[in-house]
Amino acid sequence: MSTNQLTKVLRYRWIIFWVLSLSYVLVYFHRLCPAVVVVDMMTDLRTTGSLAGFLGAAYFYPYALMQLPAGLLSDSWGPRKTITLFFSVAFIGSIILGLAGSVAWAIVGRALVGLGVAMLFVPTMKVLAEWFRIREFALMTGILMAMGGIGSLTAASPLAFLSNWIGWRMSFVAVGIFTLFLGMLVWLFVRDRPADFGWPSPRETVQASAQTYRLPDSIRMVLTNRFFWPIAIWFFFECGIFFSFGGLWGGPYLIQVHGLPKEQAAHVLSMLAVGMIIGSPLLSSLSTSVFKARKPVIVMSSTVTLAITLILYYFTDSIPIIGLYLVCLGLGIFSSAIVVIGFTTNKELFPVEMAGTATGLVNLFPFAGGAVFQPILGHVLEAHGRSGGAFTLAGYQHAFQILLGCAAVALVASLFLKETMVRE
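The chain above was modelled as a monomer; its predicted structure follows.
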């Protein structure tokens, strides 16, 4: 590799990284945006809490199901084509959602959004693996997750401002147009590998003797590994908590139980994003430098999440405003940012040649958790009736009791994890 060629690779890869990172901001925005506008959507679409739950969860069903196909398409068709095509699908979905005349069409639009943005994370991991060295990969993944936190931040106060200005419908139309714009940037600037420009790869030479695994064998090895299931169960329940509260029902809870205006509720929810942004490097540092292990950090985070859900259940209507900020900050750190350690633990259970398959399979479970518990909580809230158009305190207490149960199961599952960090 000539010095001139290496310089081109090292410079251009940052253009690719920031285009993909900006796209990842949008993925998290779409994931959590209903929490701020769901009350307006329920009023406009004349829908119940149960259907609102299915509307929020409609993002998660296709997102979860597409994780393994995302890896297959990345390998066969290439990340650039895959992301561009499916971001076009997300654009159409966001437009349908914004213009929907019924909750059925809104669910269709939301599902298309989930289908479209589902094809970013795994293809991006493949692109980063081609353009960055192995020792740089963890850092780039951490930065990418922090950009997801910024996406969560834009789904709070900025969305509240935009929806107050142009309405929730035109907000989704505008976001849809921006989604299409990002898809165009991916097509124009992203390349699957340096070889697409005729440049050599900056990656270290891979040993020719490295073992290869056929996809069916990889899937079987993952699913029959007894240590895979505790981490999968942990993901399902831990992320089910975050997506249920932060992605949908946290906003109505703050507005209807604590009487916060939508803008202030959005400010409180923005602490979820702050927790994600500061939590990813914080927990990574605790794992690598303090505990020098993965499992204690996951167990600790699961314990804190259990404590937070206890507070939500027992003090549903009496948490002071500063406490609400801290609850959301804690959920952002200990039920969302912690997934960085979870994915690392899962990856380290298997040979590096199987990392894509292992990541794709375990990534089904956090989104399945959101898909299951968002409508369950909506049904529980609706079952307890309404008072003045708002869900009742008893309904929220019962809903948070379910989250408390989720936290307890996640904590138990974390105790059965295998320690995967190799200590020198």
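The longest strand covers residues 386-387.
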